[in-house]
């Protein structure tokens, strides 16, 4: 006898009012549901109408999470039907307060694995328990140290892993049964959490150094043992750890850091899209990265690699980059440089006034960037003066203020369009409404890694690639071309989120083909399109 309660409470099995009469008879559900058998469309309409009644983003998100927790198929059906409207609610920017309030409004563990540094011997068991018999192919893991731009949120960070996985399924059709969010709870340095009686994570300082890396290593090994071949997506680790961990494992297993690589891909894609509009050459660009941290250096490396692919000499290519961080323009003698920043620093002898280059405006004046990307978490840093100075020296300034969430953005799209009299080619990390200016509607691309990591992931899973080398990242970045019509006035530099599912599929095929060409795909994978299509889960009963 199958237990009705168990079925109705299992989000992977439950269809609610959509169970047919025959299913109700077979599964012991007769009498446990109202008489009417609904279609998924009818259920989705009901859910959407209820959703609309909720007064704000957080309430809307909470309501959607209830659907997520009770009926995963219905949740994804509704999400895909209203993707443009719902994505900012389940993901960025509403995900930010949802992380901050995670412990206060804790509802359900949402199938996540919670791994504690104070209990390092039970990692594999914890992963298997959380998977509950499901064969996991994709893990999104976070240690919560650098959530978006809002900092250390400890174990509350698990919400970002849950949210990123929602985007994987909504955009790329990754089977939600095959994914696992993981929280590495190593403590927190956020005093607000330590003082919060409701905080659900470990109430001690973040463990660092060898003990921390050993714990990460145990997690990586246990995950591979529990789920052979699993693709590991790292999200929102701190600046000191993100790239270090990526480098440690990249040569051995399929691993991806979204903030480093995902952001790099989407920004390269956006720059290529912008140059498609302006007609300028990639190798003529001067790049200024404002906020040379995890994301900023991921972007710099991706753009740099593209310079080499375009045939530029490595030393010459480096000269096209300027990094600005808290210290101002980064020079070889600047204190506290990170290992990632060091290869891209400049010499003081290049400038007459190097001592003065301690703020963005002075640097823009001195180096005349053609592309300026903001990953600084410094709101409003791209001031009118900075932007006008940049625009005085280049016909189509490419400006991507991509710090998240909304309150941290370096400039708003509308201002950038106005300050440059419609010349700026803009993308933002959060969704931005189109800007009406002098009779033209400017569409604003969303330079958020969510536009590309689902397609890359689908490609990696479909090809069963053993590694994720630079060539796959490059294939992903180049796959987004040809979707936007660059000749249309006000065209966006990236394709619209409304088309996310179709360009994600295109991207995945490009990634699988590249994996086949490189010889890192599974031997059985011969046809990129077929392999990609075969992976796709659809939200239907
Ligand atoms: N749109 C996207 O897809 C995307 C992806 C990743 C990160 N981001 C955003 O980028 C921002 C940075 O994220 P991260 O993971 O790189 O963080 P990080 O902490 O690794 O890097 C931030 C960098 O900015 C520097 N910085 C801080 N204040 C500054 C200031 N006043 N002036 C100049 N530099 C300053 C820091 O020193 C650091 O080097 C966040 O807001 C995050 O949401 C966006
Ligand atoms: O989560 C996002 O919206 C993008 C990015 O990964 C970030 O950390 O800001
Ligand atoms: Mn992130």
From TrEMBL:
<feature type="binding site">
    <location>
        <position position="235"/>
    </location>
    <ligand>
        <name>a divalent metal cation</name>
    </ligand>
</feature>
<keyword id="KW-0456">Lyase</keyword>
<dbReference type="InterPro" id="IPR048182">
    <property type="entry name" value="Malolactic_enz"/>
</dbReference>
<dbReference type="GO" id="GO:0043464">
    <property type="term" value="P:malolactic fermentation"/>
</dbReference>
<dbReference type="InterPro" id="IPR012302">
    <property type="entry name" value="Malic_NAD-bd"/>
</dbReference>
<keyword id="KW-0464">Manganese</keyword>
<feature type="binding site">
    <location>
        <position position="236"/>
    </location>
    <ligand>
        <name>a divalent metal cation</name>
    </ligand>
</feature>
<feature type="domain" description="Malic enzyme N-terminal">
    <location>
        <begin position="68"/>
        <end position="250"/>
    </location>
</feature>
<keyword id="KW-0560">Oxidoreductase</keyword>
<dbReference type="InterPro" id="IPR001891">
    <property type="entry name" value="Malic_OxRdtase"/>
</dbReference>
<keyword id="KW-0479">Metal-binding</keyword>
<dbReference type="InterPro" id="IPR037062">
    <property type="entry name" value="Malic_N_dom_sf"/>
</dbReference>
<feature type="binding site">
    <location>
        <position position="448"/>
    </location>
    <ligand>
        <name>(S)-malate</name>
    </ligand>
</feature>
<dbReference type="InterPro" id="IPR012301">
    <property type="entry name" value="Malic_N_dom"/>
</dbReference>
<dbReference type="InterPro" id="IPR015884">
    <property type="entry name" value="Malic_enzyme_CS"/>
</dbReference>
<feature type="binding site">
    <location>
        <position position="404"/>
    </location>
    <ligand>
        <name>(S)-malate</name>
    </ligand>
</feature>
<dbReference type="GO" id="GO:0004470">
    <property type="term" value="F:malic enzyme activity"/>
</dbReference>
<feature type="active site" description="Proton donor">
    <location>
        <position position="164"/>
    </location>
</feature>
<feature type="domain" description="Malic enzyme NAD-binding">
    <location>
        <begin position="260"/>
        <end position="516"/>
    </location>
</feature>
<comment type="similarity">
    <text>Belongs to the malic enzymes family.</text>
</comment>
<feature type="active site" description="Proton donor">
    <location>
        <position position="91"/>
    </location>
</feature>
<dbReference type="InterPro" id="IPR046346">
    <property type="entry name" value="Aminoacid_DH-like_N_sf"/>
</dbReference>
<keyword id="KW-0520">NAD</keyword>
<feature type="binding site">
    <location>
        <position position="259"/>
    </location>
    <ligand>
        <name>a divalent metal cation</name>
    </ligand>
</feature>
<dbReference type="Pfam" id="PF00390">
    <property type="entry name" value="malic"/>
</dbReference>
<dbReference type="Pfam" id="PF03949">
    <property type="entry name" value="Malic_M"/>
</dbReference>
<dbReference type="GO" id="GO:0006108">
    <property type="term" value="P:malate metabolic process"/>
</dbReference>
<dbReference type="GO" id="GO:0051287">
    <property type="term" value="F:NAD binding"/>
</dbReference>
<comment type="subunit">
    <text>Homodimer.</text>
</comment>
<dbReference type="GO" id="GO:0016616">
    <property type="term" value="F:oxidoreductase activity, acting on the CH-OH group of donors, NAD or NADP as acceptor"/>
</dbReference>
<dbReference type="GO" id="GO:0043883">
    <property type="term" value="F:malolactic enzyme activity"/>
</dbReference>
<protein>
    <recommendedName>
        <fullName>Malolactic enzyme</fullName>
        <ecNumber>4.1.1.101</ecNumber>
    </recommendedName>
</protein>
<dbReference type="GO" id="GO:0005829">
    <property type="term" value="C:cytosol"/>
</dbReference>
<dbReference type="InterPro" id="IPR036291">
    <property type="entry name" value="NAD(P)-bd_dom_sf"/>
</dbReference>
<dbReference type="GO" id="GO:0030145">
    <property type="term" value="F:manganese ion binding"/>
</dbReference>
């Amino acid at each position: 006898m199958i237990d009705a309660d168990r079925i109705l409470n299992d989000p992977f099995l439950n269809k609610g009012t959509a169970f047919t009469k025959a299913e109700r008879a077979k599964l012991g559900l007769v009498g446990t549901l109202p008489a009417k058998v609904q279609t998924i469309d009818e259920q989705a309409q009901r859910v959407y109408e209820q959703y609309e009644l909720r007064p704000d983003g957080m309430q809307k998100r909470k309501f959607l999470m209830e659907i997520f927790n009770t009926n995963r198929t219905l949740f994804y059906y509704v999400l895909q039907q209203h993707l443009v409207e719902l994505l900012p609610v389940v993901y960025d920017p509403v995900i930010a307060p949802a992380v901050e309030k995670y412990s206060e409004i804790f509802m359900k563990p949402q199938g996540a694995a919670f791994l504690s540094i104070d209990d390092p011997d039970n990692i594999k068991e914890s992963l298997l328990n959380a998977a509950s018999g499901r064969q996991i192919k994709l893990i999104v893991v976070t240690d919560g140290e650098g959530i978006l731009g809002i900092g250390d949120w400890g174990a509350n960070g698990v919400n970002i892993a849950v949210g990123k996985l929602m985007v994987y399924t909504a955009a790329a059709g990754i089977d939600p049964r095959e994914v696992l969010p993981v929280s590495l709870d190593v403590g927190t340095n956020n005093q607000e959490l330590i003082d919060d009686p409701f905080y659900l994570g470990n109430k001690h300082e973040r463990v660092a150094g060898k003990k921390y890396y050993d714990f990460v290593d145990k997690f990586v090994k246990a995950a591979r043992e529990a789920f052979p071949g699993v693709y590991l997506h790292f999200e929102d680790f701190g600046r000191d750890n993100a790239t270090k961990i990526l480098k440690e494992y990249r040569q051995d297993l399929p691993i991806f850091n979204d903030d480093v690589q995902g952001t790099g891909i989407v920004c390269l894609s956006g720059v290529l899209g912008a140059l498609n509009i302006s007609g300028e050459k990639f190798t003529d660009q001067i790049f200024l990265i404002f906020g040379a941290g995890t994301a900023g250096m991921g972007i710099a490396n991706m753009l740099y690699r593209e310079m080499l692919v375009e045939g530029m000499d490595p030393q010459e290519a480096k000269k096209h980059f300027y990094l600005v961080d808290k210290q101002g323009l980064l020079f070889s003698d600047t204190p506290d440089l990170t290992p990632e920043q060091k290869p891209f620093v400049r010499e003081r002898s290049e400038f007459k006034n190097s001592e003065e280059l301690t703020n963005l405006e002075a640097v823009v004046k001195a180096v005349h960037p053609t592309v300026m990307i903001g990953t600084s978490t410094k709101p409003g840093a791209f001031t009118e003066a900075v932007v006008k100075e940049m625009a005085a020296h280049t016909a189509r300034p490419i400006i991507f203020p991509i710090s998240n969430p909304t309150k941290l953005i370096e400039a708003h799209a509308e201002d950038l369009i106005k300050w440059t009299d419609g010349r700026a080619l803009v993308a933002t990390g959060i969704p931005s409404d189109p800007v009406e200016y002098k009779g033209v509607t400017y569409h604003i691309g969303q330079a958020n890694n969510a536009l590309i990591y689902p397609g890359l992931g689908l490609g990696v899973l479909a090809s069963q690639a053993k590694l994720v080398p630079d060539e796959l990242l490059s294939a992903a970045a180049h796959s987004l071309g040809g979707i936007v019509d660059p000749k249309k006035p006000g065209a966006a530099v990236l394709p619209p989120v409304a088309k996310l599912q179709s360009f994600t599929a295109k991207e995945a095929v490009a990634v699988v083909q590249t994996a086949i060409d490189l010889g890192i795909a599974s031997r059985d994978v011969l046809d990129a399109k077929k392999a990609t299509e075969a992976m796709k889960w659809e939200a239907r009963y």
